[in-house]
Amino acid sequence: MIRLSVPFRQALSRLSFPLMLAASLGTVLIGRADPNVSDRVRAGIDDLLAPLYHAVSGPIQAAEHGTGAIGHLFALSQENAQLREQNAELLQWQEVAMALQAQNNALKASLNYVPSPTPQFSTGEVAADLGGVYARSVLVLVPPADGNTQSLVGAVAMDGRGVAGRVVEAGERSARVLLITDINSRIPVALGASGAPALMAGNNGPDPSLLYWAPGQPPAEGAMVLTSAQGGAFPPGLPVGVVHYDAQNNPVVLPLASLDALRLLRLFSYPDNLPELTPIPHTKPDSKPAAKAHSRKH
Amino acid sequence: MVQGPALRRPLTLWRRLDTASRWAFPGFMLVLGLIVIGMPFGLPNQAALRPVYAMACVYFWSLYRPASLPTPLVALCGVLLDLLGLSPLGLWAVILLLLQLATIAARRRLAPARFIVTWGAFTGFAIIAAGLAWAAQSLLELRLLPATPVLWESLFAAGLYPLLARLLIRAHRTAAAVELA
């Protein structure tokens, strides 16, 4: 222990509170001025804790009734019969889909259709679905990034059925996905077969709400909600959910992705040069904006 | 349990270690608890539990053993809470420090009071702190955030404090008791 004189120690103890309060307020200012600081520290802590989270969540997910492995044991034969029935039905649909695909290909060939670029993707297990008091996000374990941890930021996260969110920060072995239900999530979407534009806004509840649809075209109950390329953040045509009117008669989106029980997420990193309108570059703006602007002119 | 007058015993290395560990116990348990509560147990409204736990620890230790929870540690725990809980960096550090200040200011009244009084005081402090966090975060994000988490935090604070206090009182008398080293 360091020996200090008594008056000095008293002064120190009296000063420590205002000093710490000032330091904390300073931290708020720093976090406000440069959000990257907190993102980076948070990504570091997430990386550190991700294996721990995974060790805890594994057995809990297995034991969960209904969705987990142990829950499945009790309903094996029932589920088997149900699956067989579904399988037969799906085989019929597969034929329909194949026929439609062939037709679609033929039509595209006669239209000189430019196929959208295939995205790179990595699959990750969801280690924790925590979020904060006012935030909805999950932590995904990702294969180790070779130095370039920022390559995953902005990737679109999808589970088996639809869009679940976007990667907001990425570390060496974990990435945080902001879910579409988070209050900070705003996603441009296209509604129904006509592709009428609207904005899907998270509200921290289970179903994100729909805003800014065209006055003449109110969203129809049951209409499919797909992502739209407006703003350039998302590629067009990814399935998000279905329109539904809630008890207050406000249109909301029922997400296709099972956001309460996410197990695996695929993170799609779409290339920068999407063929559609992309005024905003897909990666973070600090990666050589001048060069990018130059290349876009050509 | 008390082994004679502690002052006369020689200050050996083991005894120093014992003292240091007892002194560090509250802070260590606070940090450990924050991380453990962060584990994905799948409890409903689990995120609201973390600030309540931090507030209960800061309140209890500031009330009964202020030397064991120095202000820098409280500020650090606040920052950790912000990092784990996705709130603006430094927000909970400020709130926990204010809570500590309020508790220490009311210490002379609260420390000898009956349990139900300290419980009520904590619930009051927690509601104010949760409301403050909500208001500050709404202000920082320039958006009216939903207020239901404040309700949950208040309910958790009122409901879980007796349980936590029972554990903390036991720790206060054994593992954290510097004078028993």
Secondary structure blueprint with pairings:
The complex is a heterodimer of chains A (298) and B (181).
Chain A: H1 6-33, H2 35-63, H3 69-73, H4 76-111, E1 120-128, E2 137-141, E3 156-158, E4 163-170, E5 174-179, E6 186-191, E7 196-201, E8 209-211, E9 224-227, E10 239-245, E11 251-255, E12 264-269, H5 289-297
Antiparallel strand pairs in A: 1-2, 1-12, 2-5, 3-4, 3-12, 4-5, 6-7, 6-9, 7-8, 9-10, 10-11
Chain B: H1 13-37, H2 49-64, H3 71-85, H4 91-105, H5 107-110, H6 115-141, H7 148-173
Helix pairs in contact in B: 1-2, 1-3, 2-3, 2-4, 2-7, 3-4, 4-6, 6-7
Say which CATH homologous superfamily of the domain at 117-280 in chain A is assigned: Rod shape-determining protein MreC, domain 2
Structural class from helices and strands of chain B? mainly alpha
How many alpha or pi helices of chain A?
5
Largest interface by Cβ-Cβ < 8 Å: A-B, 42 and 43 residues
The secondary-structure element order of chain B is HHHHHHH
Order of helices and strands of chain A: HHHHEEEEEEEEEEEEH
Give the tally of β-strands of chain A.
Answer: 12
Question: What is the radius of gyration of chain A computed over CA atoms, rounded to a whole number of angstroms?
Answer: 24 Å
Features:
heterodimer; A: 298 residues; alpha+beta; Thrombin, subunit H; six-stranded antiparallel β-barrel; six-stranded antiparallel sheet; 5 helices; 12 strands; disordered C terminus; B: 181 residues; mainly alpha; 71% helix; globular; Cell_shape_determining_MreD (chain B); transmembrane helix (chain B)
